[in-house]
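Internal tracking record. Fields below are filled automatically when a chain is submitted to the structure queue. Please do not edit lines marked as system-generated. If the sequence contains nonstandard residues, flag them in the REMARKS field before resubmitting.
Queue: standard
Priority: normal
Entity type: single polypeptide chain
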Amino acid sequence: MSLAATVATWSRTRVPDDEEIVRRVLAGEVALFEVLMRRNNQRLYRAVRSVIQSESDVEEVMQQTYIAAFSALSGFAHSAKFSTWLVRIGLNAALSARRRPSAVVMPSPSDDEEDALELIRGRQPTPEDHASARELGNLLESVLDGLPQHYRTVLMLREVEGLTTAETAEALAVSEDVVKTRLRRAKVMARDTLYEWTQDGAGESFLFHAPRCDRVVAAVLAQVFSAPPAG
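SYSTEM-GENERATED OUTPUT FOLLOWS
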């Protein structure tokens, strides 16, 4: 039975979980490894992408991860979820790739803060960065517009216009303590608004779209089908 026919039967019966598919791959249904990849591509991508910024390097690490997982499939301990086991392999591969000169990586918490700042400062903005900056500017404008007027004015004068606390207090005919209090509250409200607006969309970031999914799957299968998993 072809892979498409096999998967089609699952829509009419119980859909096997990853762990069951692992057992079936090891039993000889090697084609089902594609199902494991397509199910886990998004999660693996985000895990690897959290370490490496270069998209071409990310795809390469993903392919390496799947090949390594396929080769070690007989050693998979069913006490853990397959996706967790796979992500662990992927993160180890991504961390190893950090040592390659071609890999552009996110600074980790253990990196020196000055080095991390230099990495950020030294990165040249791309056209996509400029477009994102414009979108961010529009978002911030919307957030500020949603604040009560007296908080919005203080935030605008202090953070956007760059007035000092004393200058802002003079312009508004209030004390400097009032300016500080309003600014602090304005920042809290702006932060909460940004969080509320973005939390629902967080799951839509760092998506691994179908063409890239197909590319990684095809590259891995070209190697996987050349030999059965180690048993």
